[in-house]
Amino acid sequence: MRDKQVRRRRAVLGLLVAVSVVLLTAYFRESPNSPLHTVQRGIVEVLSPIQSGASKALKPVRDVAGWFSDTFQAKTQRDQLQKEVQALHSELATAQRAVVENRQLTKQVGLDNSIGVDAYHPVAAYVIGRDPTLWYATIEVDKGSADGVRVEDPVIGDGGLVGKISTVAPTVAVVTLITDHSMAVAAQLQDRGGDTGVLVPAVGNPDQLLLQDLPRTAAAQAGQEVVTTGFKYSQLESLYPPGIPIGQVSNANRDALANDGQVQVNPSVDLRHLDAVQILTSPHAGGQRAQVP
Amino acid sequence: MTQSLKLPLRLIALAFVTVVLQEAVVSQISVFGVSADLTPLVVMSVGLLCGSMAGAIMGFGTGLFVDLVLVQTLGVTSLLYIAVGYWPGRLRELRDPAHGLVPLAMGAAATAFAGIGMALIQFLLGVDSPVSLLLAQQLVVTILLNTLLSLPVYGLVRRVLRPVLPEDPHRRRRRGYATGGLSPLQRPSERLGPVPRSTAR
């Protein structure tokens, strides 16, 4: 009797492990349109209304927990921001002069600078799910192909670039965040030369980005803004429209810049506390692009 | 509904509610930069309460559900959670631990196993993220956070499953103290029935 129980237990355990390994292998080798992926998208689609409902119903719980967490950080941030405000006041005067100059120059070269996010047909979406592990930097939103969302559409939120759509079902979509290991964004440093590079997540640090492939002579300084370049080269076009803020340079080490051509960047968006995002469903609607010579 | 169906149905409902709550609420609450993960704690609790088989099956099901809902590589989480459910079940079957802090230790072990196991599998699958001090720090903070949550989670799971558990460990132990370690059904005199007169001396 006992032997039979032991055999049955081992058989069940072996079966479960075998099924897991088979699923893992099959899924890993399959293309995104294969049956397993299709079934997965179908299940996400069925569950999305429940997730969306739970997310909205339990928002007060999240807010209360978030309030406690935020209060701890508020005092430190206040002191830091006061210093930044002082520095920004002095920069503002310089910037205002540059805006006037820029307007005049823009008119001269005939570029339409009035284009904003509205031109990219943004679709507002709520975050309904989030991956708790560090290994998949993804979020789920409550808008999908029925709302015009497509794979690779850029996603912005809280005043900066959040990521891009990686999976779409009719009423739900998965956003891969810019901190995911698979992401790389063509980005421009807002310095005098407008140096460009490729923004990638810092290896082993999911909250930090690296702007790589910068010219060794780039005049990068801490606090400088980093935005998307929106390049266009022949048929090849960037996924992201130009000028979307990504973050600020946090550490412009001269040695790192001279040796590796890279600086550290802090994302503008607090990716851990996103409640709502905007999906740019026509990212190439704008006519203005940085042309690669 | 038959008694034998009640436990699987409750386990399915428990897995469903846990995953939905985890994704919709808990994952979006950040404490010291990390979020708690209730799923390994629930699987561990089921293993401790229901045994190795139920724990392993619950682990497989919950892991598969997590992978499906989060659109991750299928099979990764289910493979890890099989062990997370199985080993607490084996501990219960072999040692029957009575200490009230066992779920605390098992919660920490389950979270550590799930975290380290996930890292190993990701490396094997070729994710370009070598081990760094920050990842190690975040893993440690997650383990601490989950350890704090393991007792309340275990209590909740026990409360949900107690009415349909064939043998609640706490109830069995209390009965053990009252009857000298055996249930009345297991006493030889009662199992064999009254002794025939012919053999009585």
Task: Give an overview in words.
The complex is a heterodimer of chains A (293) and B (201). With 293 residues, chain A is α+β, with helices and mostly antiparallel strands. Chain A contains 4 helices and 15 strands. In chain A, the strands form 3 sheets. A 6-stranded antiparallel beta barrel of chain A has the order 1-2-5-4-3-14. A 6-stranded antiparallel beta barrel of chain A has the order 6-7-8-13-12-9. The longest helix of chain A is centred in the N-terminal third of the chain and has 51 residues, at 59-109. The N and C termini of chain A lie far apart (79 Å). In chain A, 33% of the residues are buried. By secondary structure, chain B is mostly helical. Chain B has helices spanning 3-24, 38-50, 52-69, 76-95, 102-124, 133-161, 169-179, 188-192. Chain B is built from 8 helices and no strands. Chain B is globular and about 45 Å long. In chain B, helix 2 (38-50) crosses helix 5. Chain B has 2 domains: 3-166, Arp2/3 complex 21 kDa subunit ARPC3 (Orthogonal Bundle); 168-201, no CATH class. The model of chain B has no long low-confidence stretch (mean pLDDT 81). Chains A and B meet through helix 1, helix 2, helix 3, strand 1 and strand 8 of A and helix 1, helix 3, helix 4, helix 5 and helix 6 of B.
Please count the beta strands of chain B (DSSP E, at least 2 residues each): 0
Summarize the main sheet of chain A. Answer: 6 strands, antiparallel, barrel
Alpha-beta classification of chain B:
mainly alpha
Q: What separation lies between the terminal Cα atoms of chain B?
A: 50 Å
CATH topology of the largest domain in chain B: Arp2/3 complex 21 kDa subunit ARPC3
Please give the domain count of chain B.
2
Largest sheet of chain B: none
Second CATH tier, the architecture of the largest domain in chain B = Orthogonal Bundle
SSE class of chain A? alpha+beta
Low-confidence stretches of chain A: 111-115, 289-293
Overall pLDDT of chain B, averaged?
81
The tally of helices of chain A reads: 4
Rounded average pLDDT of chain A: 80
- The first-level CATH class name of the largest domain in chain B: Mainly Alpha
